[in-house]
Amino acid sequence: xxxxxxxxxxxxxxxxxxxxxxxxxxxxxxxxxxxxxxxxxxxxxxxxxxxxxxxxxxxxxxxxxxxxxxxxxxxxxxxxxxxxxxxxxxxxxxx
Length: 95
Hints:
- With 95 residues, the chain is α+β, with helices and mostly antiparallel strands.
- It contains three helices and three strands, in the order E-E-H-H-E-H.
- Helix content is 38%, strand content 24%.
- The chain is globular and about 35 Å long.
């Protein structure tokens, strides 16, 4: 089984980073929650920008731990840099 770190881009800018072992299923989940009106920083910021979220693969890993570490690294690099992502930085308990 492989794990994919992915991004969601809005207007050409990466706004969300995540990881999954099934990209198609995760895209369906994101779109379902978005259409349902789930309150999440990402969804709240894109209401008027799109009708469907598309997940773009960044890198694949053999283990979930490696994928999660890479995801956290990308989120933290943004958090201490440009701050373009619409998500909170990871907590230690998330590692």
